[in-house]
Amino acid sequence: MKNTNYDEYENPGVTVDLVIFTVSEDALKAMMVRRAEAPYPGAWSLPGGFIKLGESLEEAALRVLKEKTGVDNVYLEQLYTFGQPERDPRARVITVAYFALIPWKQLEQPESNKIADLIWNPVDQLPELAFDHEEILKFAVRRLRTKVSYSNIVYGLMPKSFRLSELQRMYEIIINGSLDKRNFRKRMLATGLLRETGKKDINGAHRPAKLYQFKKMEITYFN
Amino acid sequence: MKNTNYDEYENPGVTVDLVIFTVSEDALKAMMVRRAEAPYPGAWSLPGGFIKLGESLEEAALRVLKEKTGVDNVYLEQLYTFGQPERDPRARVITVAYFALIPWKQLEQPESNKIADLIWNPVDQLPELAFDHEEILKFAVRRLRTKVSYSNIVYGLMPKSFRLSELQRMYEIIINGSLDKRNFRKRMLATGLLRETGKKDINGAHRPAKLYQFKKMEITYFN
DNA sequence: CCAAAAGTGTTATTGATACACCCATGC
DNA sequence: GCATGGGTGTATCAATAACACTTTTGG
Fold first, then answer.
1. Interchain pair B9, A52: CB under 8 A
2. B113: buried, middle or exposed (CB in 10 Å: 19+, 13-18, 0-12)?
3. Which tens digits make up the pLDDT trace of B165-200?
4. Chain A residue numbers touching B57 (CB-CB < 8 A)
5. Cis peptide bond upstream of B12, omega within 30
6. Are B53 and A8 within 8 A, CB to CB?
7. Which pTM value belongs to this model?
8. pLDDT for residue B110
9. Which of A108, B15, B81, B214 has the highest CB neighbour number within 10 Å of its CB?
10. What is the pLDDT averaged over residues A116-121?
11. How far is the alpha carbon of A201 from chain B, nearest alpha carbon, in Å?
């Protein structure tokens, strides 16, 4: 099936590719894996793989996610399907792109760092990427940034409980701008999506912060 | 894209399916075609077809659109990709769904009605549909209804020039609710997306209406 | 002159923004 | 007692929502 001489009646390959986001060191980052083989040997790329005939697209995405991160049960959303005929130089391959959000804390476990040739790269300083993966990644970043402004999607990047200042910081990192503390807190508490845990975070030489958590781990749209 | 050995995996079929919307007789309608062959012989379904190896997904969608409606150069957007393993009883088939908007006037031309076994069906009174096409159609309706409220996407359903009352009616049909005339006009004119044509529509026993058109046929987001 | 749709402003309410000081703790 | 981040309220401005009458035409 290495023909570039396309047969009209042959089926294309179908893959899933994942844009896996996390936030660490005050930056929005995405996972990249180094390709071992041709094409683009040695280049960075998004994690992905061919779908198997018995699995749904989402199952394929979850499988890849689990393989690369060791996690499961995180926010996952279908992004877009990319199918330009020449996007893979070997053969016709259509890819269904997904994006996932993982709190950094869930990735600090030893097992998740076992895989070599895997990096978490700030989305605003990209290396050269294989295939059309730069386009896919930028598409995902745009979608995430848009969605942050009218939903509570950031819950997918937060640890189970957090200070309001940490939540604000998360918004600021993603939208790449600063927010007013008092207005931010008012709005967040007004959504009714947060619950005080009753615990406090004693963290340094300052007043301890109340810890909050999301009532339900579900995306909710404002407005 | 870990696997380079394509032969380990049998490729699924890949189709595009289209939800083609229009508005006539005060109702939002979608195109349905009667299936001739198994599976679901005789059942209504969304227009669609297998993608060819040399064409992009959007080209495939445009091809199907042209075949069924005779039109081209209308609003077309990728909706979602549906890939449950059992969605087609014969074999694994993944479908990339698109939705299109066509002004009813463009469909009144004789050629577009040549195709037998094709209906424009109100989206709130669906017949039984083949495959998972009901799910796809409902997904499209939801997307259209949402998008109408924060963009000028309705331009895709309007004729070249129109009265403001016709534009308002279009919104009302799609969102399935009524709008205040004065607020509607204020908001629409405030967007700056409309231009007076200078012409008037003399239509019946009443004051003639100014005719407007969209400055550019492009989707623009409010807010 | 009657019927039918076009056209037009003001007020009230709501939501968004701007802005500065005191609090509780560790060292 | 001082440095550090936590926590709080009010006033202004902008956007949205509610609401009813006059105008222009054809018949």
1. yes
2. exposed
3. 999 999 999 999 999 999 999 999 999 999 999 999
4. 81, 83, 94
5. no
6. yes
7. 0.93
8. 60
9. B81
10. 91
11. 37
List all residues 6 or more positions away from B216 whose beta carbon is below 8 Å from its beta carbon: B193
Bridge partners (DSSP) listed for residue A95:
A15, A82
- A121-165: pLDDT as tens digits: 999 999 999 999 999 999 999 999 999 999 999 999 999 999 999
| Terminal-to-terminal C-alpha distance of chain A | 50
List residues bridging with A80 in a β-sheet: A97
Residue A27 tokens, joined: 């930056």
Q: How far apart are CA A99 and CA A142, in angstroms?
A: 11
Kindly report the CA angle at A96 between A23 and B30, in degrees rounded to 5? Answer: 120
CB-based contacts of A142: which residues, under 8 Å, 6+ apart?
none
Helix (H) or strand (E) holding B181: helix B181-191
| Structure-token pair, residue A2 | 């290495």
Burial B178-215 (b: 16+ CB within 10 A, else e): eeeeeebbeebeeeebbeeeeeeeeeeeeeebebbbbe
The span from the CA of A218 to the CA of B191, in Å, is 34
Q: What's the distance, CA A190 to chain centroid?
A: 27
Q: Are strands B48-50 and B118-122 parallel, antiparallel or unpaired?
A: unpaired
CB atoms inside a 10 Å sphere around CB B106 = 17
Residue type, B34: R
Paired sense of beta strands A27-34 and A44-45, if any: antiparallel
Contacts of B86 in chain A (CB under 8 A): none
